[in-house]
Structures are given as structure tokens and as C-alpha cells.
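User: Can you recover a sequence for this backbone? Please restate the input before giving your answer.

Assistant: Of course. Working from this structure:
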């Protein structure tokens, strides 16, 4: 594990997820976009509109005061109310293609968490629609690498994760030297759920040395 930021990692994750998610979305019937997700009050369409808006803001460098607050997110979604589902997906595809180089140039990786959040939202959509591997798939490896980088930057508690489905352990958070890292044992997708504050119903894992709430990056 290195403390040196990889500026290309967010773009890699976005492009990997784009190639998996966009063809899937284009095949969906319109009624699928009305399915409720784990995000309170949001349907599949709402989640996709939010993601499209967030990436468009990155590409266009539009970060006014209060951006990404709950109120701003709702306004972004409402602004896309007149678009068809296909148009929302097209905007999302453009954002997932064009945002990577912009994020790479952002000072100190301040936008890296947006790429990780977009990947998590793709998992929200897959889970809502009953697709397997909601928070896994082709993007899991770069997502774990990016999660490690974001947790170091945000100085979350240090955590040593032994993952059931990944060969090497993952080291997350910022080492303080004050005490040994907390330990996690379980699936990689459940680790993602913990950090993203996603539902844990039906999961099994062991966590020692830290409370779940201390790991949450966003919810």
C-alpha cells in the first residue's frame, strides 16, 4: 500500500463501470426506472439523474456554494425531469467518459470520492433491480484501491481487511501508530456497504476494534 495518489484511478473506475452499466441501462424498460432504491425517496431514475448531474458538474467545473447538499441534489434531479430515461443515461455516459481527466487534475485528490460514490450508486441501481453482485463486478478492484486512497485522505480509522474474495488484504484509513488497526473479515461487497452506509441485511462479517458508524464515508 502506498500513500502516493494515483490520479488515473478515478477515471479507470468510472470507465470500467460505464462499460458494464450503460449497456445494461439501455436495455431496461421504462418501468424499471421507477423502481425504488435504498436511497431514501429515490427511484432508479433519481439515482441516475443525480449521478449524471454530479459528473456534469465535475466536467463543467460548476461547484457553487452548497453543491451536493441534499437540497442541491434534489434540484439537480428536478432539472432533468423533462428528459427521457434514455437522455438521462446518455448524460451519465458522457460524464463517466469525460470526468476522469478532470478528477485526475484536481488538487490533492479532492474529487476522488465522487468517482467512488458514483460506483456505489451503480451498485444501488443493480441491487434495486435484483441484479447479482451489486457492489462487486468488474469495477471492484479499482473501487477497493480508490476506497483505500479516499479513506487515507479523510483519515478514517485504520482498518486491516481480510476479504473472502480478494487474495491480498486491503489496508484502509490513516495509520496513527497509537493502536493496531481494526480488523474486518468478510466479503469485499459487504466492506463497501459498511463504508457507504448501505443496507447490511443478510450479510455476515466480523468487525473488531471499530464501530460501523466510524467507517461511514457518506450515506
Amino acid at each position: 500500500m502506498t500513500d502516493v495518489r494515483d490520479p488515473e484511478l478515478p477515471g479507470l473506475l468510472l470507465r470500467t463501470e460505464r462499460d458494464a452499466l450503460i449497456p445494461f441501462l439501455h436495455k431496461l424498460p421504462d418501468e424499471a426506472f421507477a423502481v425504488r432504491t435504498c436511497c431514501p425517496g429515490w427511484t432508479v431514475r433519481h439515482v441516475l439523474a443525480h449521478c449524471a448531474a454530479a459528473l456534469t458538474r465535475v466536467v463543467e467545473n460548476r461547484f457553487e456554494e452548497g453543491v451536493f447538499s441534499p437540497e442541491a441534489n434534489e434540484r439537480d434531479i428536478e432539472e432533468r425531469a423533462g428528459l427521457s430515461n434514455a437522455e438521462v443515461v446518455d448524460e451519465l455516459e458522457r460524464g463517466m467518459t469525460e470526468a476522469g481527466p478532470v478528477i485526475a487534475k484536481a488538487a490533492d485528490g479532492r474529487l476522488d470520492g465522487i468517482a467512488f460514490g458514483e460506483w456505489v450508486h451503480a451498485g444501488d441501481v443493480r441491487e434495486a433491480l435484483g441484479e447479482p453482485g451489486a457492489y462487486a463486478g468488474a469495477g471492484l478492484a479499482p473501487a477497493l484501491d480508490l476506497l483505500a486512497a479516499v479513506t487515507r485522505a479523510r483519515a478514517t480509522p485504520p482498518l486491516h481487511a481480510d476479504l473472502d474474495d480478494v487474495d491480498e488484504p486491503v489496508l484502509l484509513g490513516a495509520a496513527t501508530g497509537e493502536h493496531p488497526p481494526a480488523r474486518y473479515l468478510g466479503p469485499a461487497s459487504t466492506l463497501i456497504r459498511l463504508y457507504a452506509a448501505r443496507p447490511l441485511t443478510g450479510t455476515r462479517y466480523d468487525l473488531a476494534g471499530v464501530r460501523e458508524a466510524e467507517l461511514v464515508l457518506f450515506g
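That completes the design. The chain has a mean pLDDT of 95.
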